[in-house]
Amino acid sequence: MKFTLSWLKEHLDTNEPLKTIVDKLTMIGLEVERVDDKAKALAPFKVVSVISAEKHPNADKLRVCMVDTGSGAPVQVVCGAPNARAGMKGVFAPPGTHIPGSGLDLKVGNIRGVESRGMLCSGRELGLSEDHEGIIELPADAPVGKPYAEVLGLNDPVIEINLTPNRSDCTGVNGIARDLAAADMGAFKERTVKPVKGQFPSPVSVKLDFGTMPSLCPAFALRLVKGVKNGPSPEWLQSRLRSIGLRPINALVDITNYLTFDRARPLHVFDAAKVRGNLIIRRARKGEQLLALDGKTYALDESMCVIADDQGVESLAGIMGGETTGVSETTKDVLIEAALWDPLNIAQTGRKLGINSDARYRFERGVDPAFLLPGLELATQTVLDLCGGTPSEVMLAGDPTPAERVIDFPLGDLKRLAGLDVPLTEVRRVLGHLGFFVAGQGNNVKIAVPSWRPDVHGTADIVEEVVRIVGVDRIPSTPFGRGDAPRKPVLTPLQTRTRKAKRALAARGLVEAVTWSFISKPQAALFGGGQPELALANPIAADLSDMRPSLIPGLVAAAQKNADRGYPDVALFEVGQIFKGDQPQDQFTAATGVRRALTKASGIGRHWSAPAADVDAFDAKADALSALAAAGAPASVVQIVPGGPAWFHPGRCGTIQMGPQTILGHFGELHPKVLEALDADGPVVAFEVILERIPEPKAKATRAKPMLELSPFQPVERDFAFVVDHTVKAADILRAAQSADRKLITGVNVFDLYEGKGIAPGKKSIAIAVTIQPREKTMTDEEIEALAKKIVAEVVKKTGGVLRT
User: Fold this and answer.
1) How many other β-carbons are positioned within 10 Å of the β-carbon of residue 49?
2) What pTM did the predictor assign?
């Protein structure tokens, strides 16, 4: 919602500065997103007169100008514009000025040996247009020394607020002014609309025809104005519309747009000569179409409400008018319409057809039913003032009378719900300024809700109104009682895992990214998705059509974009949601990362101290295991098995599991065909682990950490090499060796793999280092030898291998 400061002051009598008003708007819940104050940005630029413009002694296309700035001696400026000449008036920027069009700060310069102490500016340099053919030329009567923004009429700041969906009353400047007046920012200018007397009965009638179906139009009012003269609207009206980004069209259309933003009352005007017969408000029929004012033709269905005449559909109710009955410069007789529509139906129709209009924005939030007829009267009077004409009597179908809403409000709810003590006199004053009526004394009062506040239904809503106006800063800070018991954790186990996984991956040199939750259907199909139930009904772009089944495509795209811009060595991670179906149990939290080119954990890029090496599957494996360990996965039971999903390179990927039924994730090098489909260059390695699949740790009797046990005895390390079948996994050998004595054996690691001369075909040699940590006494050679034999026996038994000698 946009409006200017001067527009606001038409409804609010205030002398408060702009900053105070902006701060107060945000404090009362009307969050200010942006203030466009061109006067402030253009403050240094002044109107000047060019006294002389002589040819530059050292350049044919430059002129040395002496300009009168209106504040002292003339200033010398070197100018290259072809229209710079003596006697003209232009716009001058002194040294030190920031030039919006170029982003440069102006300094005293020396151009071809001649000093220049400023600049005569073009429209593009001021950021006002694309004109750079010459400097700005002003009328001869432009006052020298006056700020250019003031001459141009740009000294009216534009305020843009972000409205929550419940505040339909503040979709008009009038409602915003009412809120500010309640917050002591000034006095609200209440304007009672006077009825316009009709001179003759309306020749066009209105009928609400919904049959046995629920009505989508509670009330519809219409009035004919004969003999109007439609043309350009007055400059004040055009300027007001342009200031908020609307294009002036003609007086009749501009009036309806103005009242839409001024009083939150959308209206529509028909050229009466183009309407055939009477108007009927009904549901659209199957197969009907409408050529709308935006030039597009829309296919309608029975769920949509339309305004029709004997010829067919003329307007899409509450959203957009039709081209065939639109007003033009030749319009002589105009039908002015004001109506109430079903908010839910307006929202559904607009979403189905993809139409976002200012009328839809207001009707789907709910407009003031009590202002239906006053809004029509106000529009009629404005048309008469600007276009002339003779009005008919009002034709009304339906009943716009709003239902009464009275809330029994105990004052104690302010303390109970907001922790705020507000006396009844102040509650009465605040609510009275907002349009509520408070009756009664004591601790319980009755409050009548105004017709323009459809969002207020109960006591909690009343509390919110009082608190936002008196100020949340008045709520006292009250610490929570700690009690004697220790505080319980605030974060859920999954939230804790998410944070720990992020910290672990960041510590390994990966940079966090946040990518779209949507990807294209072909990409989704590549990674196990693409099901119909995961396709978006209304995607924001063709390549963002499906919910993502994996975080890898988004991260690969982000890495490739970095590479395309000169940063090929990229390591990114994301912890976010992935979707395997449309049910709650099909949504998972994945910790995913990608490494590209030379981004190893040990260092990124090339360096003289070591040869450069591309990332490989083991880098992704280390990242995945680090994330799992940080998230609480029990390292002793985590298994690595070869192979993975189809998007990984066969033979260069692995699966992380806790038994075949619990797959924690995958890692590896991405398949070249997948990279080609993602339009990315390799090498790229990736991993993805699912945090929900990590089993919950067993509850402990105490939160205290166990006592640190450090053995005083020297550890012993023994190496073993086993010849096994080529299909035997190294992990199987490690588990077998560990199982020989879990108390004494504290570590088992693979340190060598050999295939070749001396090893039979189909066999391989795997060497492991076993660390033995005595606990109670120093082990004898006999005890160590006995444990070594036990290790060999376990490996032989469980893998079928033999000790290599």
Assistant:
1) 21
2) 0.66
